[in-house]
Amino acid sequence: MDNKLKPAIIGGVAIGLLSAIPFINWVNLCCCLWAILGGLLASYLYVKNSPVPAKPGDGAVVGGIAGAVGAVIYLILGIPLAILSGTAMREMMINLMANVDPRQADMIRQQMEAQGQGISGIIFQSLIGAVLLLVFAVIGGLLGIPLFEKRKGGTLPPPPPAPGGAPFAA
Fold it and tell me: Is the dihedral angle over the CA atoms 137, 34, 77, 80 positive or is it negative?
């Protein structure tokens, strides 16, 4: 388990930090891409340091641990950062939408004001995000094994029989 823990922690820190930092975390809008890449990183580091060929189950375990570490970091850092940067993020989204379709931007602004993004909403969204990070990190870990493991699995073939039919020489 020790040889899985270090790669998983490294991948998890990458997941958590990149998913919590405002504006950088928008990459997660593409199918939780930071989580998948963190799981891939964890499985790559595991395969690189593993003395035996890695199996898909190893990738799932390493990705799962990385996802759990990333989810905890995301919750610890992401909730306060979301509270602090929430207004700026909303205004930026509305401004982006105003460039595309001003009528749509007004509708979005009204909807956001009606919802009133409170702390409870941020915590709820962060918990859902943490679960998604865990799930997609496992997927990344699973994808990493066939991508990075080039050694052949299995055990060595048995030795050939001894000459003369006798299994042991006396």
Answer: negative
Do 54 and 149 touch, CB atoms closer than 8 A?
yes
Q: What single DSSP character describes residue 170?
A: -
- Rounded to an integer, the average pLDDT of 113-135 is 86
Residue 94 burial by CB count (10 A; 0-12/13-18/19+): exposed, middle or buried? middle
Q: At what angle do helices 56-100 and 102-115 cross, to 10 degrees?
A: 120
- Integer Rg of the chain from CA: 24
> Is 59 part of any domain?
yes
Print the domain residue range for 131: 2-113+122-150
Instruction: Return all residues near 85 (Cβ < 8 A) that are at least 6 apart.
Output: 22
Residue 36: both structure tokens together: 């998948």
pLDDT tens digits, one per residue of 51-109: 999 999 999 999 999 999 999 999 999 999 988 887 777 778 778 778 888 887 788 77
- For residue 170, being part of any structural domain is answered with no
SS3 call for 52: coil
Phi/psi of residue 54, each to 5°? -85, 150
As for how many domains the chain has, the answer is 1
- Relative orientation angle of helices 2-20 and 33-49, to the nearest 10 degrees: 160
Q: Establish if 20 belongs to a structural domain.
A: yes
**Is the residue at 164 inside a domain?**
no
